[in-house]
């Protein structure tokens, strides 16, 4: 997009050429463009400075008759959804370029494999990284003297890890029921939209409350059965969920899935559940060990 200064130069030059002090020397000037496209460029400029460069900030702008074109002539006429999505993106209604990330998942029977995928994906995921460390302690009346380092290393199912790494737009899953009426239950998937020290702003991306905004606070979680003592962990009750276990995927449907079967399913129905998360075979990719060509049913 040309800057307002170019428009104002055209105005001055036409006045000089036509020897007429009317706007644009009395000539009719037709402009066309799309404010959804790239703005004028100015090195090291702030947002407000770039906005000030647009022709809308020129005193000449109010002299134009504005006409709006409504049909995208470049897009295929049969691709109405594509044209609609382009307009929504241009208008800022699509909240991020990761808007459809909830439609994809990597599944595995085992938490250890899931954790590896999530660690690799969050490393490659764009954006600033935020690391949150939990505060771990035992019951005050516990006779066991356990160092913080040992407490930090302890993990179990449906319990947040000591270290949680997040980025804006990353996908997470709730590990506790927080508010069932608001759709915040164990297994709910969310997309992080803003990150605070003690609160996460998120968009729900699964279940009946899909698309709604919510807040996830840090809370103190208690594990009483897994260890010979009561463990208290103050942390966000979530885990990364680019990848998650087959059991956690139940009741959900995805556009595309990858299934890691390098370790066989260990419980009844897991293979069936994993394969039935997508709508067709061409939406499923399966990873096996190099010497295998079949999956265990």
Question: Features of this protein?
Answer:
alpha+beta, four-stranded parallel beta sheet, 297 residues, DNA damage, hydrolase, helicase, 14 strands, 5'-3' DNA helicase activity, nucleotide-binding
Question: Would you kindly provide a written description of the structure presented here, covering whatever features stand out?
Answer:
The protein is an alpha+beta fold and about 300 residues long. The chain has two domains: about 5-90, no CATH class; about 100-245, no CATH class. It has helices at about 5-20, 45-50, 80-90, 110-125, 150-155, 270-275; strands at about 105-110, 130-135, 135-140, 165, 170-175, 190-195, 200-205, 215, 220-225, 230-235, 240, 245, 255-260, 285. The chain has a five-stranded antiparallel sheet. Strands 12-1-13-14 form a four-stranded parallel sheet. Helix 6 links the parallel strand 13 and strand 14. The longest helix is centred in the N-terminal third of the chain and has 15 residues, at about 5-20.
